[in-house]
Write a structure and sequence with these properties.
about 150 residues; alpha+beta; three-stranded antiparallel β-sheet; globular
Length: about 150
């Protein structure tokens, strides 16, 4: 559908599968087995963090929860799946040699992640407390968007 080529990067000792999808020779996405039965069956957005534990603590303090506690992710780094105050999930991943998507904002590549929430103000507070993100709200064709 997008012209991606999939490269199997499953570690030899893994019971699941891990494929890295490439476009124009650059990483654009990954497709993998669920890390646990608790993991949602959907696309996940992962955010780079210095410490999974520190961000997890901030998320819980800000009213979020832990969906999947810290787990080993491929090349030795650690990850977790968190839920925000309203239940939307987001992954956190410690930096390592693999830096994620190498091609974005191009045809067939990742363009953006969108959070659909009924509590925009609560989301602003949560993501600022956890990641230090600022929010900008603007009109968009008769509706309002917050980035």
């Amino acid at each position: 559908m997008f012209g991606w080529e999939a490269e199997d990067r499953t570690p030899s000792d893994s019971s699941g599968k891990y494929l890295v999808c490439r476009l124009c020779g650059r990483d654009v996405a990954a497709v993998g087995s669920r890390p646990s039965e608790d993991a949602p069956l959907d696309w996940n957005t992962y955010v780079w963090v210095d410490s999974v534990e520190a961000v997890t603590a901030k998320a819980v303090e800000a009213g979020g929860s832990v969906v999947i506690d810290t787990f080993a992710f491929l090349d030795g780094r650690r990850a977790a799946i968190l839920a925000d105050h309203a239940g939307a999930t987001i992954g956190v991943l410690e930096l390592s040699t693999h830096r994620g998507a190498e091609l974005v904002n191009d045809l067939g590549a990742w363009a953006m992640s969108v959070l659909n929430t009924g509590d925009v103000e609560g989301s602003k507070r949560f993501y600022d407390a956890v990641f230090g993100w600022d929010a900008l709200t603007f009109g968009a064709g008769g509706s309002e968007l917050t980035m």
